[in-house]
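Lab notebook, page 48
Experiment: co-folding of the full assembly
Goal: obtain a model of how the components sit together before planning crosslinking
Operator: M.T.
Materials (sequences as entered):
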Amino acid sequence: MSAPLLQMRNIETYYGPIMAIRGVSLDVNEGEIVAVLGANGAGKTTLLKTVSGALDSNKGQVLLDGEEIQCRDPDWVARKGIAHVPEGREVFPLLTVAENLAMGAYNRSDKDTIARDLEAVYEYFPALRSVQRKMAAYLSGGQQQMLAIGRGFMARPRLLLLDEPSLGLSPLLVQEIFRIIVRLNSEQGMTILLVEQNANVALQVSSRGYVMEVGGMVMDGPSDKLLASEDIKEFYLGKKEVGVRGRRRWKKRKTWR
Amino acid sequence: MRAMCRGHGPLPQPPTEEKVLLPLNDVIHLAITGIAQGCAYGLIALGFVLIYKATEVVNFAHGEFMMLGAFAVLTFSEVLGWGFWPAFVLGCLSIAAVGYLVDAQIMRRIIGESQASIFILTVAFGFIFRALAGMMFGWNTRSLDTPFDGKIAIGNLVEINSDRVAIIIATVLLVGAIYLFFGRTRYGVAMQAASQNQLAAFYMGIPVKRLVSLTWAIGAFIAAAAGALLAPMTQIDTTIGLLGIKALAGAIVGGFGSIPGALLGCILIGVIEPFADYYLPGIKGVSAYVVMLVVLFVRPEGLIVQTYQKKV
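Observation: model returned without errors.
Model output:
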C-alpha cells in the first residue's frame, strides 16, 4: 500500500491560550472517506483548520503526499489541492450561485474541464441549477450547504475537508447530502476527510473513523467496528444499555474499547 | 481648514438686500459646480469604501493619496515636461504603487489589532504624507495646467468651466470601469468574495492578501485622479487632502459600505454645499457635516443599506 495522501503527525494546536489539539495523528488514504467524530469542543474544527492552514500548529507536521504543509497561508494550501468546506457553509452571500461556484475554480484555467465539473455540480445538486443567478444569501440553509460543497468540489481538490455538513439541516436533507457525498467519493474518486457530530450517518458513509475527545484521539478503526463498539453506541448513537438491575448505570465510564 | 472653504470657483456675489431667488443661470451654474465637486468627493469616497469593504479599515489618510496624486501629476507634467495626459497616467499609477506598498508593508501587519490603533495609524499616515509632501514639493500653493481651461456654453444660458465637466465625465468613466472590473473580471469577483467572507476566500485558494493590497492600489489610483482633476478648482498644496474628510461625510450619508450610496451621498453633499454657502453664509464650509449629522440622526444606516442575514 502506498503512503497516505494526508498524514498528521503529533499535531498540537493552540486556540489562543488553550491547547485545542494535543498530539493528534491521523492518516487519510487516497480514495477514502475518513470520519472524525466528537462532541462540541472536542477540537474537530481546529483539526481541519490546522490542515487547511487557517490555524498554525505549534508542534507536529501535516504532510500532503509527503510534503509539509503546516503553518502556511490557507490560500497556498488550497493551491496544493486541499479544499475546505467550512462549518456553517460560509458562502459568499452577495455573489450569485454561479459566481460562488466559479470562485471555487479560482485557481484552475482549463475552461473545458471547469465547464464539465460545473455541469457535474448541477447534476449532483439539481436544486442549485434553478437558482444559478440568485444571490447566495437568499438560498435556504440546505441549498447553501450544497453550494458550499459544490464550491469545494469545483476546486477539484486532491482532498476535500467537510466540516459538519449536517449542521442545521433536517434529517431528510442530511440523508440527501450524505448520499451525494458518497457519490462524490465513488463516482469522482474524491478523497474526503469528514468531521461530524452526527456519528451514525458519518460512520455509515465512511470507511474509517477517528473519535476525538477534549483535544485528543481516543479511538480509531474501521467504521463498521466503531459502529458496533459499546462506547460509541452509548455516547454517540444514544442507545441505552440496560444494566442488570434494570436501570441505566450513570456512573459507567468510557473505556474506548 | 482653509482648504475646506474653497473649491467652488467664483461664486455669484450675494446681492446686498434680497437673496431669495437666484436667477436660473446662476442656479444651473451652482448646481453643476456642486455636482462636479460632489463627483470629486465621490471619487475619494470610492477609495474609502473599497478599502473599508476589503479590510474593515477606514483609511483616514485617503485624502492624502489625493493630495500626493495632485503633486505627482504636477511633478511629472511640469518638472519633467511630458504634457498633462502622460503625467496624469504616470502620477496616478505611482500613487497606486504607494497605496499597494502601504498595505503590503504596513497595514497587513497591524490587521487584527484594535480598531483604535488602526485608526491612529492611518491618521498618522496622513500627517506623514503631508509632511513628506511639504518637504518634497514645498509648502506653497501651486497650480497645475490642465487641458480643461476653456468654457462650455449650454445654450446661451450658462457658461461652465470645462474643468468641472471633465471631473463629471472622469467620474462616470472611472465608476463605469470599476463597476465592470468588480462585476465581470475574475480578479474583481474574487475581490468581492474576499470582502464578503475572507476566510472562505482563503479556503478557495484566492490570494486574499495580494487582492487586498490591489484594492488599496485601486483606491489610491482613483483618489490621485480626483486630485489631479480637482487641481484647477482647488489649486494644489499640502492641505487639500482635508477634502477627504468631506468625502468621508458623503460616504456616511450614503451608507458606508455601499458604493452607489457613497457616490450618491457625496453628490448630494456637493450640490447642497454651494447653495448652503450662498443662502447661509454663516455656516460656510460646515454644511456637509450638518447634512451628515442630520442623516446620522434620522437614518443612521445611511441612505442606501447593504446588509443580509446569515443563516445558521
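Interpretation: The domain at 6-88+152-235 of chain A is CATH 3.40.50.300 (Rossmann fold).
Next step: discuss with group before ordering constructs.
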